[in-house]
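Standup, Tuesday
Yesterday: got the pipeline producing structure tokens again.
Today: sanity-check two examples.
Blockers: none.

Example 1:
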Amino acid sequence: MARALARTLRKLWEADLDISDGTHAQSYRARELNLVAERLRLILPKAMLNPRELRNSALERIAHSSRLLGPVRIEGLSYVAPVWRRLIQRLSEVVPVEWCVPPGAETGWFSGTVNVAEPTEQRGAPAVISCADPHHEVVESLRWARELVASGAAKPHEIAIAAASPAAWDDHFLALSPQAALRIHFSHGIPALSTRDGQRCAALADVLMHGMSQRRVRRLFSLCRDRLGLFGDSPDRWPKALPRGATLPRLEDWKRALEAARLRDPSLGSPEDILSLLEILAKGAMASTEAAAALLRGRSLRIWSSATRCAPVDAIELSLRNVRLASESDAADSIAWCSARDLAAAPRRFVRLLGLTNRGWPRRATTDPVLPGHIVPASELDPDPAPRADRRHFEIILDAAVGGAVLSRSRRGAQGSRIGRSPLLRDLPEIALSRARTPAHAFCEADRLMARPGEASEVPLIRSAGRCWHNWHVDELTEHDGRFAPGHPAIRRAIERVQSATSLQRLLRDPLGFAWRYALDFDAPRERAQPLTIAPDELGKLVHELLRRAVDSLEPDPGYARASEADIEAALKHAATHVHESWPLERPVPPKLLWTNTVDYASAMALTGLLHRDIREASTRSWTEVPFGQSDDFRADRELPWDPTRPVPMPGTPIRLRGTIDRLDLRSNPAAARVTDYKSGGPPTNASRLVIGGGAELQRCLYALACRQLLEDEPVVVARLLYLSGEPLAVKLNDLDGALEQIAAFVNEAIAMLNGGIAVPGRLSFDRSNDLRLALPASPGYERRKRSAFGKAAANLSPFWSHP
């Protein structure tokens, strides 16, 4: 509404229309405008006047014009707003005033000397072309301009590209003109948000309006720290000290996270400077002035001030989009990209007019939203309406384009809808240009290669992309479907690394994903924004963390096996309190209320697992999150039942294992060990028959194998799954030796296939839960087309995928 009021006031002032009395004053909108105008007059500096007051002040001093100005010459204008006409008329009575106008200008009111500029050269008929859409229009414009410059037919300052309203093409010109290596002057300015200074303002607005999450604050500080030294002498130390996964939506979270980082690394120093800025940002929009003064400098501060002047701070995100900056190139030696109004005032010899559609040129007359026609007639409020101005500018531009003119339109709009020809094109013949045509002169190398497939095929990267596209449509396996040289060193290194249960599961159920993740170091992007719920795997980690902390607090005194239910509940409550406060400083968690409910839900699941003990012997000792197979530099911060750095090989395979056992119960007399793998989900229908689940359930088998190799008394080892969702269910593994033999045979077959130069997608590959699914083609037709070839290549693995 503020912008609409501003536009209407500008119209009133330019039309020299007074609505403070008479019939107009009876309108509510008129009274509102008068109040706004009066308010503006009171808050403007004394040296700043609105156009009507400025005109009246000049009229009072018109007698001094002969000594101050002398003869006056008005050059190029085709229209003068009514507010200035009385001043020019009075001025012509004191000093000679000459108006050099293009043909078609409105000069009936002017009593001075009028000189109509006539072209010194004859112009030919303009060429009319149609393009696919606005983006194609910009591409063709750059091709045309570059050809003129390269051929020597024109110099950059003789070329102009214009539209009645250029906003629809601005983004395309901004994106494509650097590729063309042409100096293009934006006479109407470039969007502030396309510059680094504008992005500083956008980042600040994002924090003030949407909250100070770590992602937003990091972006703001990264844009501003080079000016303010927010992070001291080493600008990368503080950001690296904070966990990337933490959302940190509140000031209290930031204080705790910064203090924890300082405790971990005392050399970081005091975070007082950062905290003082965070305290300002935490106030939100009400502290916009203070935040801008603290974080912005120079042009970025001017952009912010301009945006806040034209609209309230609450609308800063919208007002920033409308702020424009002066073009960095000089119009005197650049191709002009401008509005038709600007070009009509300073025509050029070679012009290309865009957007000549039935909707775009001439533009349609619209009713003013503040003062509609029944309050103030449109002819009074806008004496030079857009349709008439557009037609006048069109004629002026064409008359001056003696070097050549091209009239361009789009066959479809930016949203894909069909649009027709402008009436200004009349019956001129039109040439339809295809988007895929081969241009006589490309505007950049990419444009040249796109239009000339023969030349593009000689570029190695494009040739490889072409082979990939071809191989996607054939049925057999190719190098783009997981084939590579046998014995590849990257695959060998991936197999020789110490494997976890997760990597081994990937090897067995998704060999191609194993090659991506562990041979090529592919990784899936992680969500950094604050979620409303946590992912299922994160819920499992939360339950495991609660179980670990609760059991560790009970051991060794009084001992988990001997603890009462009240002791267990108290230990779990303490663990939940700690996790509730610490997890938001390490990873993304939901908002406060939802996070509290999530911790309560996970605590209920953990309590189910803790109360399902099945052990009462006094000689039993329990551990949680017990590491094994770790690297030599691993240091445990607590007592463990074994040396966690001892290697754990898998018999009959080249694989070495590492991992962390969810829970380990050891009984000393007689010697026995029980390993428990917690499952936060519900049990499957065939839970009692489950052995390795086609490679999906390896943990309890691998945990039991580690106990056999690391425990000295050779105890009886029992492995089980414990499902915590709903009614708890414990599922024991009846034949551990048979399960380990199955896994060893499965592993050997997968390794043999990889060493042979084949990595095919497995049962996990096309599952929605696969985080590497993004690296596969999105079309489901790819899986159907290649299914037979995948099956033949993985013939020895397929039986294992069906094992229970």
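Example 2:
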Amino acid sequence: MQGFAPVWQVLRAVCVVLVLSVSMAWAQQVSAPNYAEWQSVATRAEQAVEAAQASDEALTSLRAEVAGWRQQFQAQLTANDSRLQTLADQIDALGPAPAEGESEASEIAARRAELSAQRERLSTPRRTAEEAFSRANGVVAEIDEILRQRQADALLNAGPSPVNPTHWPGALRHATESAGAILASVQQAWHNPAARARAQDNLPLVLMLLAVGLVLVSRSRRWSEVLATRIQRADSGYGAEAAGFVVSLGQILLPMLGLFAIVRAIGVTELLGQRGAVLLNALEPMGLTLFFSLWLASRIFPRSDTLRTPLALPPERRVEGNIYTVVLGVVFAAYTLLNAFSDYDRYDLPALAVLNFPLTLVGGLLLMRMGWLMRRNLQHRSEDNPDFDGDYASRFVGLLGRLVSVAGLVAPILAALGYGAAAQSLVYPTILTLALVGTVALMQRFLRDLYATLRPGEGAAESLIPTLASFVLVLLSLPLLALIWGARITDLTEVWARLRSGLTIGDMTISPGSFFTLIIVFVLGYLLTRGVQGAMKTSVLPKTRIDPGGQTAIVSGLGYVGIFLAALVAITAAGLDLSSLAIVAGALSVGIGFGLQTVVSNFVSGIILLIERPISEGDWIEVGGQMGYVRSISVRSTRIETFDRTDVIVPNADLISGTVTNYTRGNTVGRVIIPVGVAYGTDTRHVERVLKEIADAHPMALANPAPMILFAGFGADSLDFEIRMILRDVNWMMSVKNEVNHQIAARFAEEGIEIPFAQRDVWLRNPEALQPRAPAPDQEGDT
């Protein structure tokens, strides 16, 4: 099998990686390794590496053995950490060792020598384990280098060309011999009386398994598809989409159960022989490939308009994509079958190149068409919405489509030139990558639908939690993607081993265990802080006499203190020693201080605002020419909603250092001034009485102090008056002004009081300049 592992082997590799990961995560401390046995294994491994003649299977097995020893040595590196730390603390407690020529008390000297001897005795196994670990690590790296070099050579070396006609008869001979060998094996088993007798004895079981298998293979996909479609048609909500997705998985599981029953039924008869068993063993991975491709085609390219699709394609393009997906599955299944027979019958390289070429050619052409459809996705979205400039998913699909088209074009050319291994390592991993990307996209949509079903609300499907879950799903798919593109299980285990050993920064080591401990403890502390804040805000503080602004300040302060303590406890629980980073942090703080001095100033100002509370949420303030209501006060800035319903973000430093007018601080009582002008010659006392009646009658005006009418002065065009009254709620200032002005206009009309308008007299210095000029006399008539 060239280029990469097929689906069946990739799935098995993933299972192995998961098992290794779980076993490593839960592994307990083991006893001291047998270094004599390790010496023998290490010598044998180093000789094999030096010779570089062993097969890939032998080297892989040897590497696994050496990696097992390395894991034991790694466990020994931290076996006595706690005891060694205790001994170091005890020695430090005795004080510094005496200088040369000085002496100390005999009891202290004896105790120091005893503790030093214990520390030396406990440190010896660690130093031995460090040397053995280094040696094992080097052997593993050399084996990996040999395997990678062989893999690269296999891809880059040119082999026989499939377009050479001299290779065709050999390929045809191998194919006919394999088919004839299967028939001969079946005939030989059939003519064996013992085999026929066993088949007859198992006939009821065979018939039952065949009946169940045929029904499931032929009808179960249709049942699942119809049920999923009915669920999604009955309800267009997120719950129906999630349920339809779960039901649609029956298109894979139920036919696979049927195929499994058929394979077991045929296997029970024992009439196929060894050659037939090769075909029988290949049926299950082939069936999984075909059923999975059919399911993926029905979900990514649904023929029905009622089903959602990740791609914005018209119906005719979806039908085309559906067909391409299924045919690609057939090509991959045929490749799996061809590899099974080539491994068993030992096909020579020319025959294998000729037999693989049609599959590579068809796969390449289909990939080119599939890439074209993926690029059309962004085009159709732009046609439907002219303002659409492409989101991340659409741009990713378009870029992937271009890469798929290139792979489909290059692979057949490489195969024709004799680079069959490289062509196969390009076509089939691309097919698997498309399947993986499609599956991840469907799973992400299912997670969003499921979360929106459990937590209904506007925008729930696009909230933070399903987005993070989708991101985690992408991360989990990366190891599988690496296996698809030629990575070996040993590569993944090596990466995991390095992650497990941790990242060392100075004297601090960050391992996955400490990282997850840090995250879990911090999240628990954060949730506890939010719970305390909620309890204080809803249950405790409302029962006190603290004003709303003070309550907000207390809740915010608890949040900052709680998050700080959660981070401190999380770092301590993870066992991270940050003292080694103190010097670096001190150096960075200088640069950060200069670069973020504005942010720090706003942060400190925000804390001052929360403590002193010169303004509170809901206050009507004016700052920097902006007037409005305070809607929220954060650590960095304050949000003000103006009267035209726009939000103004004001840095907290401006509120502390600038001049702020608070119209509603403490209470909502405030004064309003309404100017009025009347014509010259009007009785001013009469005007004062009318205005006083209007002001006293208004319900928003306070009786004490009573409204006052002020004769403000003699204006250029009018006698100027002002109505000054204290309102119960200054927030109604504009409404009061509007109502009072209407009443003034009505009363002045009734009382005959004139409201003048501006008049101006214009004097001209030389009015003769405006007279028309007389025409000049005609020179011919002038005598």
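Quick observation on example 2: The first strand starts at residue 503 and ends at 505. Strands lie at 503-505, 508-510, 620-623, 626-633, 637-642, 647-651, 660-662, 670-678, 708-714, 719-727.
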